[in-house]
User: Fold this.
Amino acid sequence: EPRVVLDGHRSVCDVVGGAPTGPDGSVDPHRPVGTTPGPERIAAMLYTSGTTGRPKGVPISGGALAANAAALVDAWGFTERDVLVHALPTHHAHGLFVALGCALTTGASMRWFDRFDATTVVEALPGASAFMGVPTHYVRLLGQPRFNRAACRTMRLLTSGSAPLSAVGFRRIADRTGIEVVERYGMTETLMLTSNPLDGPRKPGSVGLPLPGVELRLGALDGVGPAEADDTPVDDAGPVGMVEVRGAAVFEHYWGRTAAPADWARPDHPGEPAWFRTGDLGRLDSDGYLHLVGRAKDLIISGGLNVYPAEVEAVLERHPDVEEVAVIGLSDDQWGQRVTAVAVRSATMDTGTSDAELAERLVDAARSDLSAYKVPRRVHVVDSLPRNTMGKVDKAELRRTFGGG
Assistant:
């Protein structure tokens, strides 16, 4: 594979600009570097998180970045008058292309921090108009007494992504700030795909509607048990399917894998653009809003029946003694997999309550709202859930930790 070795900032400029070099390898700083790269030219390459294997390189074209930025600016109403509080890492598409893309495209101002700190962010909100975060950020902000309507009096936009925001969290933020979070959905390979509307209903537990230029459908599930429609947390949602997408911002191939294998990209007919299979499972409601129920790799098949972790998590997170919860499947000789919950106590919970008592309460809550095969057979109580750098719960780590329990 080709390698690029950079020996200083001049080399970076030369490579990015594609400028011709002289005999000594340098570029005349007074000469134009050439024509503007076309939209098909690769502008960046980010790597996936690697939670399902080795990280994969994702080449992203300039055209994809431009299309994504234009869609978000339109969807979220960004203008040069906005002031964005930016505390996201820039090694990830969320901070690098979503947040920065909106600001740089419109000439908006930014209050930029090298890392997220809840106290610092709350102090930066007055006078700002927008903040983009992940659910973990909002949990920490809710722990700050000054994260309230007064601090957010000039804010018009709070967004959340990169991990699911619970319906309970959505309502807590709205009660505290008077602002309903705009939850959205995307990934490195596709950039942003859906968003709850700026003007219109923002549905708790939903990642919204497809953005302009995005085609989205639910495809067949391969190699899983029969679909079950009961206990659906959304009254009018349809059956579960694999989220498949295509559009101007969707990548063409992974680095070094130019031939699209059938496991992640499939055209309906030869010669047509392929549908990228995201690996996410979801339902569409009657308004066309997408409700994610989990990753295909996290689907639990117990006794031959599908259990979608998000359904069980939504029930358990409503319990007042729980701060957050993750549901995983662990190997079981009788059932194939057993439903297991890992819960974090609420800060307001009575300290005299034992882990066993909390576990019993959660099982009782699940029994009242879920079919028997979806009720957790074991509940583990922990101080915190393991997460990756973008705040997603690391369920693979939970399976390693509790797999023998």
